[in-house]
Design goal:
11 helices, globular, 68% helix, mainly alpha
């Protein structure tokens, strides 16, 4: 991970590449530096995609570029959220749908790869662990965006992704890493970036789709499937417990912050 002193230079070089993403990098750089608002960046990106000879290759390369930047520089998440929100706000078009669908597929593949890499290694590489957290931060940020665009034709993030990661991290799910330091961080990312959206689903008692077997539930949760206020309370209590057990550690702080955020959300959304 880049240090704070060399981030600006490295970030600019990482964004504006000398390949097929060059012109998109110029747009992203202007967005991040405040030269253009997200709606203009979104429109410029879709206008450029419309001119591509091979739309599939272009959307794939751009999606990978955006996601890889989010892994290395997670402070870009607010910019990416604004960008994707603006893309969803634009009139539906073939290149818009292609971009959003490709982005979704790539994000699922990236998430699965990082999850499996961390899951399948007794002593996972620290960078992979961090990237596993960051991809969940990206996933959660876009999940929150999507919950505000329920009328959109395209899906950026599957609704059950939150259930799966929270279950893995807090409910002793069969696919848990069984390592609190690996499981808690990704789960806390969902509360940090999409807590209000998740609470809204829990308050509404949103049922879990029958096809979402991977997100069913862990053995620690004996309540019904799907989102509910009871399950939200269970997650909050687990975060609080982990925060107390690992007091002063990075994982303990993340868990404690998630528990506090959940209480704040409960107070704010009556």
């Amino acid at each position: 991970m880049a240090s704070s002193s060399d981030i600006p230079a490295k970030l600019s070089k990482a964004i504006i590449t000398d390949d097929e993403n060059h012109r998109y990098g110029l747009i992203l750089d202007r967005l991040i530096n405040g030269a253009i608002p997200a709606r203009v960046a979104a429109s410029d990106i879709l206008d450029n995609l419309a001119l591509e000879d091979d739309l599939g290759d272009a959307t794939y390369a751009l999606s990978c570029h955006l996601q890889n930047l989010a892994l290395e520089y997670p402070f870009l998440l607010p910019h990416w959220s604004s960008l994707m929100s603006s893309v969803l706000d634009l009139p539906s078009s073939a290149h818009q749908k292609n971009f959003l669908n490709t982005f979704n597929c790539n994000l699922v593949d990236l998430s699965d790869y990082l999850y499996a890499t961390v899951f399948g290694d007794d002593r996972p590489d620290g960078k992979n662990v961090l990237h596993h957290e960051h991809v969940n931060g990206l996933h959660a940020s876009l999940f929150a965006v999507q919950q505000k665009h329920t009328e959109a034709d395209s899906v950026i993030v599957c609704e059950t992704s939150a259930l799966f990661i929270l279950s893995v991290g807090l409910e002793d799910h069969v696919n848990s890493h069984h390592n609190v330091e690996l499981d808690t961080g990704p789960a806390s990312q969902w509360i940090s970036h999409a807590g209000e959206a998740i609470y809204g689903l829990c308050k509404a008692g949103t049922e879990q789709p029958a096809t979402a077997s991977m997100a069913a539930r862990g053995s620690g949760w004996s309540g019904p499937l799907g989102y509910s206020l009871e399950r939200w309370a269970f997650w909050r209590d687990r975060f609080e417990s982990i925060g107390n057990e690992l007091l002063g550690t990075r994982t303990g702080k993340a868990a404690a912050n998630a528990a506090r955020a959940m209480k704040a959300i409960e107070s704010a959304i009556v």
